[in-house]
Amino acid sequence: MTYIHVPDNLPGIRGLMVFRPDTAKHLNQLAEELLRSENSLTRGERELIATHVSYLNDCFYCQHAHQALAGYYLACDFEKLDEVKANPDQANLSDRMKALLKIAGSVQKGGLQVTPDQIEKAKAEGATDREIHDTVLIAAAFCMFNRYVDGLGTEAPLDREFYKNRAEARANEGYANYNPEN
Amino acid sequence: MPYINLENKLTGIRSLVKYRPETGRHLYALVRVLLTGPSTLSKGERELIAAFVSSRNGCMFCTESHASAARILFESEQEVVDEVLENGTSEILSIKMNSLLQLAGKVQVSGKEVRSEDIERAKGCGATDLEIHDVVLISAVFSLFNRYVDGLGTSLPENSADFEEMGHFMISNEYKFHLNSNP
């Protein structure tokens, strides 16, 4: 049961967005810019960073909503991403992407956990300053979203098909003008 | 030295939003609503939550700048700021505000740390749904800012007195986003 009064048919962040549209608007615009706008990191790579951080924060709703989106963009099986989000080092990813996910994992623990070695490694694998910036901010943003969604005790459908079934429509709709009631 | 070339000599969050205004403008707009928009929590109380969470995250830039704003807003009771940074609570504050600080402290650790008892306690002290919502989101948002500022190794001001000036600017500017001057 969500700790505050939100529409009970809207799980996860969606009920919170209806409860407080003044903050929802900016949260959605931030997500649009970070996860969907023009970028040398693909939409799939950025959704994977969001999924990994949400997995580390154990946020069921965010982790599966973004895993489904990552699967959609990367044309990769949802189930296969169970392994990737848990152990990106063992996954079939570029060394650049592995280095960026390592930074994201440190950000999840705390900003001061990121080490100069991790940054150097990412640069050596070809990551640009802008990619490192966006990785840190995506990871930090999901430390916010995950706390928001779980800290207010929102409901999350346990059937993972729910998230898979929504991914394509969510990818087409984007975040900027997202209607949480759909 | 920041971990990436931010192409400016600003400090903390200011250097980051100057480097990447496309995301910076939305971050500032969010904080503007949460910390300065209409609310039954005073601006001082909201800056205090921001400073408290930042302190728990060990983020010196955010702690010092928001503590400075909170001290200015609490006027003659500014010792409340150091008490909260040290103990997470203060007798100067209402029991409602103390219960909300406790809630913010849980969210700082993780969303999963919050239990229904924490919410019931805050409601029992008179906190409304909107106040609870906003406190959780403020704590979550500073969990973002603190990681962003420290995760990219941004610079601190050379002079600690600069934080006082920053506090005054934050209060008068109310987090309006300026692309071509110090945000």
Secondary structure layout:
The complex is a heterodimer of chains A (182) and B (183).
Chain A: H1 13-19, H2 21-35, H3 43-56, H4 60-74, H5 80-86, H6 95-109, H7 116-124, H8 129-151, H9 161-173
Chain B: H1 12-19, H2 21-36, H3 43-56, H4 60-74, H5 79-87, H6 95-109, H7 116-124, H8 129-151, H9 162-173
Helix pairs in contact in B: 1-2, 3-4, 3-6, 3-8, 4-5, 4-9, 6-7, 6-8
Structural summary, described in words:
- The complex is a heterodimer of chains A (182) and B (183).
- Chain A has 182 residues and is an all-alpha fold.
- Chain A has one domain (13-171): AhpD-like (Up-down Bundle), CATH 1.20.1290.10.
- Chain A is 65% helix and 0% strand.
- Chain A is globular and about 50 Å long.
- The two termini of chain A are 20 Å apart.
- Helices cover 66% and strands 0% of the residues of chain B.
- Chains A and B meet through helix 2, helix 6 and helix 8 of A and helix 2 and helix 8 of B.
Question: What's a concise summary of this model?
Answer:
The complex is a heterodimer of chains A (182) and B (183). By secondary structure, chain A is mainly alpha-helical.
| Cα-to-Cα separation, first versus last residue of chain B | 20 Å
- The chain-level structural class of chain A is mainly alpha
CATH topology of chain A: AhpD-like
Which class best fits the helix and strand makeup of chain B? mainly alpha
Return the average pLDDT of chain A rounded to an integer. Answer: 97
Global geometry of chain B: globular
| Fraction of residues in β-strands of chain B | under 5%
Characteristics:
heterodimer; A: about 180 residues; mainly alpha; AhpD-like; B: about 180 residues
